[in-house]
Amino acid sequence: MNIDDLKETWNKENLETTPEISTNQRKSLNLPLGKMRKNMRIEFWSTIGIFVFAFGLMAVSPAPFKFNFYINLLVISMMFVTAFFFSKFFKLYKEMGNPSLNTYDGLKDLLHQLELNKQYYLSFYIAFVPFLVCEMIIVLEFIPRPIPLTNIQIACISIGSLVVGIFTLYYFGKWWFKIFYGKYIDKIKALVDDLKK
User: What is the per-residue pLDDT across 104-126, written as a single tens digit (0 to 9) for each?
Assistant: First the structure.
C-alpha cells in the first residue's frame, strides 16, 4: 500500500466518523435549541425577579431586626449558590449558539454537556435543602407561640422538613427540568441517532 492509498483511506474514515448535518437536520436542531435558550432566559430573569421581590419584602417587613437580618443573610447565601449554578448554565447557553454544532461530533459533545447540566440542575435544587432547614429554624425560633414547642417537637419538625425538603426539591427539579428542557433534549438525541445510522 502506498502513501496515496493511506491518505485516501484516512480521509474516507474521517468523513465517515464526523458526518455533516444537512440543512433540514440543522433546521430541526435549531428549533429545540432555540426553545431551550428561550427557557433559560426566562428562568434567569424570573430568578432575578424572585430575589428582588425577596429583598423588597424584607425591606418593608415589620419583623424584628434579628429576624430580618438572618433572613437577608440566608437570601444572600442563596444568591451566591444561584450565581454559581447560573454560571454553569450560561456556559451551556453560549455553547448552544456554537457554529461547531454542524457535525455529528459537535452534537455528541452538546448532548454530553446537556446531560452534565441536568446533573447541575438537580444539584441546584438539592443545594437549597439546607436553606430550607435554616429558614425553618429561624421561623421556629422567632415566631412567638402561646405554648412553646418542646425539644422533641422542634427536632421532629426540623428532621421532617429536611426529609420532605430533599425529596420535594429533587422531584420538583426533575419535573421542572423535564418540562423546560427534557423534551427538547429528546429531540436532539433523536437527531443524533438519525445521524448515527
Answer: 677 778 888 888 888 888 888 88
0.85 exceeded by pTM: no
User: Can you tell me the distance from the alpha carbon of 133 to that of 185, in angstroms, rounded to the nearest whole number?
Assistant: 33
Q: What is the pLDDT of residues 77-103, one digit of tens each?
A: 999 999 998 888 888 877 777 655 566
- What is the secondary structure of 119-134 as a DSSP string? HHHHHHHHTTHHHHHH
Q: Which three cell numbers stand for residue 11?
A: 480521509
Q: Which amino acid is at 193?
A: D
H-state helical runs in 61-182: 65-96, 104-126, 129-142, 151-177
> What's the rounded Cα separation, in Å, for the pair 13 and 101?
20
With beta carbons less than 8 A apart as the criterion, state whether 115 and 130 touch. no
